[in-house]
Amino acid sequence: MNEHVHASADLTKNQALVMGALTRSDSPLSAYTILDQLRDDGFRAPLQVYRALDKLVEFGMVHRLESLNAFVACRHPRCDDHETVVFMICETCSRVQELSDDVLANRVAFLADEARFALKNTTVELRGICRSCQAA
Amino acid sequence: MNEHVHASADLTKNQALVMGALTRSDSPLSAYTILDQLRDDGFRAPLQVYRALDKLVEFGMVHRLESLNAFVACRHPRCDDHETVVFMICETCSRVQELSDDVLANRVAFLADEARFALKNTTVELRGICRSCQAA
DNA sequence: CGAGATTGCGTTACTTTATAACGTGTGCAA
DNA sequence: TTGCACACGTTATAAAGTAACGCAATCTCG
Ligand SMILES: [Zn+2]
Ligand SMILES: [Zn+2]
Ligand SMILES: [Zn+2]
Ligand SMILES: [Zn+2]
To answer: Which of A21, A45, B47, B67 has its CA 20 to 30 A from that of B84?
Structure first.
């Protein structure tokens, strides 16, 4: 059983609405942008969004981009290994590519180990220009 | 000439004050904490802090921790290679260890290259418990 | 030298991001 | 049925960051 796979049925109404907004978007959304998009669905206050986001992040269905204060739906090709994920954030089109890499993950684990650092969570965010934006 | 080494003489008064506050601290400081610490030195508004921080980050003397919305003085053992730096952030004592690692940096560069992503900036932040806090 | 540009600085007001605190309703289990 | 867990709604507030204005000191180059 894969712990971070949740059918829509598992989600509450608010969680499903927030998840829907993120899934529809092809770039990260701030909590307040989500709030604005969901006004017609009855959303009124930031907490409604933040509470749903907290759960979705906990489920592994959404990632928070620390350097952007924004959120993306998980687009992992394979849904395992959410330990060490790399985000490539395009500063031109603001689209985000998500990937996981064992070599990188292992190196991070090694460095932590070497420093006797009990690793709980890894953030890797790359800023730059994506392939298609370079063409232009 | 090493571009990010700046003698105190190079800094303006405000930059020196902010740098001093960060250097004295053994953990990251938010801009507003710095502001409070510098009230007696004449600081009144957030912008005074942010403007100094912008420059210090540009000089490479200060790093921004994205996952903390906070800032640390650079404590690089060797002052080169500010391209890819790893921060280990202790969630217990909130101290931060900074290190650079060529293997990790190369892997990041490789992944970016492979995706034809023009890499400008890399953020790697590890959350966990530091060595000395585990002992306790 | 002096006109124009650049840079740092100070202040007010403001925007964006995130939480605290309190109360409601629903389902479920002892 | 009573107690608990949990999602939800609302108001207010905290924390982080920026826009816009103007002033003064320092380059810089004709
Ligand atoms: Zn993912
Ligand atoms: Zn792009
Ligand atoms: Zn450094
Ligand atoms: Zn610690």
So the answer is: B47
Using a CB–CB cutoff of 8 Å, tell me whether A113 touches chain B: no
Q: Calculate mean pLDDT across residues B59-70.
A: 96
Average pLDDT over residues B54-83: 87
Domains, chain B, in order of start with CATH, read: 8-73 (1.10.10.10), 85-135 (3.30.1490.190)
CB contact (8 A) between residue B104 and residue A119: no
Write the CB contacts of A108 (distance below 8 Å, at least 6 apart in sequence).
Answer: A84, A119, A122, A124, B86, B104, B124, B126
Q: Is residue A84 helix, strand or coil?
A: coil
Report how far residue A95's alpha carbon sits from residue A78's, in angstroms, rounded to the nearest whole number: 20
For the beta carbon of residue A80, count every other beta carbon within 10 angstroms: 12
The packing angle between helices A13-24 and A46-59, to 10°, is: 80
